[in-house]
Amino acid sequence: MSCTFRRNTHYRLETGPREEILIIPSRCNPVLAGLVAIFLLLWTAVGLGTHSPTDNSSGIFHALSVLAWGGFLIALAYGLAYMLAGSEVFRFEGEDLEVTRRVPGFAFRKLFRGADIRELTVIRRAFDLYGLRLPKSLFVRGPVGGIRFTYGMGTQDIASGMPEAEAAEIIVWLRKRLPEA
User: Fold this and answer.
1) Can you spell out the DSSP letters for 63-130?
2) Contact 144, 10 (CB under 8 A)
3) 3 CB contacts (<8 Å, ≥6 apart)?
4) SS3 for 137?
5) Is pLDDT of 64 > 50?
6) Could you give the 3-state DSSP secondary structure of residue 42?
7) Which tens digit of pLDDT belongs to each residue from 127-158?
């Protein structure tokens, strides 16, 4: 499989004998990754200190607090792993679009019927931190966008965090491969 990087882009196109795959590596911000890592360590230390095996408290409150602490710990670890080594992969299976969000050890796939994808557009938005819409701050440089399309009765957002110009290039790549409506 050969790999093509366009100059100054945040995505790459891998071409094989029968298919093209578009890969968007996550954009890691070292300051934000460092802050999340520090918070992850502090959260782990506090949690281990408060939920020790010698704790005499019992009951549903203790069980729920341990579950909430563990769930938040997993979410933080996943966010940090995605920031450091995650990617979003687009490929076509016939006329259908497969979008995969990859983190080392995990892959979340979603398959969209190509004939049902409508209104591919570039979106411009505030900084998007794993679903939290935040205003631009020290952590974000340049315009942040993504790709939005209508699928069935809902709206789908993909390629979050892409510069608007590159999102427009990806839309051109997608439109060439999607069936005409």
Assistant:
1) HHHHHHHHHHHHHHHHHHHHHHH-EEEEEEETTEEEEEEEETTEEEEEEE-GGGEEEEEEEE-SEEET
2) no
3) 12, 13, 14
4) coil
5) yes
6) helix
7) 555 555 544 444 445 555 688 999 988 888 88
What are residue 12's DSSP bridge partners?
A: 5, 23
What's the Cα-to-Cα distance from 64 to each of 30, 54, 74, rounded to whole Å?
A: 33, 17, 15
pTM over 0.85: no
Those residues whose C-beta lies under 8 Å from the C-beta of residue 43, and which sit 6 or more positions away, are 69, 72, 73, 76
- Find, among 132, 98, 135, the residue nearest to 114 by Cα: 98
> pLDDT tens digits for 73-122?
888 888 888 888 888 999 998 889 999 989 888 899 999 999 899 999 98
Nearest CA to 80 among 126, 44, 26? 26
**Residue 178 pLDDT greater than 70, yes or no:** yes
What's the number of CA atoms in the CB half-sphere (13 Å) around residue 64? 3
